[in-house]
Write a structure and sequence with these properties.
The complex is a heterodimer. Chain A is an alpha/beta fold. Chain A has a single domain, classed as STAS domain (Transcription Regulator spoIIAA, 2-Layer Sandwich), CATH 3.30.750.24. Chain A contains four helices and five strands. Chain A has a five-stranded mixed sheet with strand order 1-2-3-4-5. In chain A, helix 1 packs parallel to helix 2. Chain B is of the alpha+beta class. In chain B, 30% of the residues lie in helices and 28% in strands. Chain B is built from three helices and five strands. A five-stranded antiparallel sheet of chain B has the order 1-2-3-5-4, with helices on one face. The longest helix of chain B is centred in the middle third of the chain and has 21 residues. Chain B is globular, with a radius of gyration of 15 Å. Chain B starts with 13 loop residues before the first strand and ends with a strand. The chains are: A alpha/beta, B alpha+beta. Chains A and B meet through helix 2 and helix 3 of A and helix 2 and helix 3 of B.
Amino acid sequence: MDIKVDVRESKGDSYVVDLNGEIDVYTSPKVKDAIGELIDKGHYNLVINLEKVRYIDSTGLGVLIGGLKRVREHGGTVNLVCTNPQIKKIFDITGLVKIFGIYDDEDAAMQALV
Amino acid sequence: MNQPAVQPQGGTLGVVELRIPSKAEWVAVARLAVAAVANRLNFSIEDIEDVKLAVAEACTNCIQHAEGSDQIQITCETGPEGLTVRVRDFGHGTRPDGIRSRPADEPPVGGLGVFLIRSLMDSVEYDVHPERGTNLVMTKKVAN
């Protein structure tokens, strides 16, 4: 079980973080490091693409929430791309649908940043 | 491998036990094992995913909160009504009310695990003992 993290620059000063795999208590530090590194470099508008994420637990949610809190302090935001019904269900029952913008594709998530 | 679903008869239990090191890299083994057990019952894919996540959250709580425990014991019991999973650590005991349980109306960074367990399973009980550790018993019923 592992997570693959790819970071790429997109429109303007926004960045896309592509995640592929399972985000749990073991793999979430890798995701946290990637997001933290972007924020440390002053990039506060992020799209995190969960399309290839098969599983996420509360530690993974915590990493996303932590990233969102940090970018909001600088007027930025984090939008998510997710269509996996099981993962969307987790965002729904935890109430995270109220604090994250969750979109069906990357273009929509990117447009909502600006 | 296409195996027939287990059809539990009244009173007859199938028991599967697993013990893992209390380390993050082993949680995936626990959730996959429990998913395999749940797959032998008539659970929907969605219900199997619920059980997987609940067990993983329980193991994560053991790793993060059970001081002095280096093992986690997971016991699955298949019964007439569904699946009962016991997740036990051997630490000094962490009360579930000591772990915050809440939805994320505001951005918290911790405390979602217990909330998820309670949301995804049909019944959840904690037995916290200062010497024996914490025993979490949770049940998922098979939908009729």
